[in-house]
Amino acid sequence: MAMIREMLSYPFLVRALIGGVLVSLCAALLGVSLVLKRYSMIGDGLSHVSFGALSVAVAVGWQPLAVSVPVVALAAFLLLRLTENSRIKSDAAIAMISASALALGIVVTSLTTGMTTDVSSYMFGSILAMSRQDVFLGVILSAVVLCLFVFCYNKIFAITFDENFARATGIRVRFYNSLIAVLTAVTIVLGMRMMGAMLISSLVIFPALTAMRIFKSFRSVVVCSGILSVVCFCIGIGASYRLSTPAGASVVLVNLAAYGLFTLASRLCARKYK
Questions:
Q1: Which of 125, 164, 191, 224 has its CA 20 to 30 A from that of 198?
Q2: Burial class (CB in 10 A: 0-12, 13-18, 19+), 216
Q3: pTM of the model
Q4: If we measure between CA atoms, which residue out of 198, 189, 183 comes closest to residue 251?
Q5: How far is CA 266 from CA 35, 102, 206, 209, 224, in A?
């Protein structure tokens, strides 16, 4: 309790906790559908697109988040269209777009500002990078993401498991696929300040995979994934503060440990009921 009170006495840690908890929750909820649809690596691809957009914004002197959110949302929309209307598979399309965007960001950075602290924080994450404006914008956008996910839950459930059946019942599959991609894009951009482009996709993948080790129903996996993501983030931030380790890497390692524990628990349960 003393450590928690000490952490909450620092404004930058309070901002990090508020922003990180909301982003972790959004990423975990969306991650369940992305993992089940075998589209989980979209988070990694969009994080690289976001780095490219942020690098250009920093070089030009524009507001980074104001530039990157629409750019990454557009990239998510185009990525879906590319995989639907061409012979390029989804994994190849993600790799192509992410590598191109990352290369663009690195070239623009090297020709203008160089690898400054601000640019480096977008690449590797920084607990000190969350400003009041970032948190304010993050709270608003996270609330929008959560509300849309809850409101469209039944449609998302339908397209996650059987797009053909969902289409036959009158659900606009293309629209809801695009909605998931855009919401994921917004979440990725919001989380990059703290987690960095290299690690942000872990918030999308790990909680869903961990919850699936124990639970089987979609609703149970979604609820467990959201809770796990928030708990692992808070533990990771606490460990980062205590051990003076990078925040993003600490959160990922805590998620990895949770995955290992849930995997062990599922195997023990399977042996017990054999």
A1: 224
A2: exposed
A3: 0.83
A4: 198
A5: 19, 38, 16, 12, 14
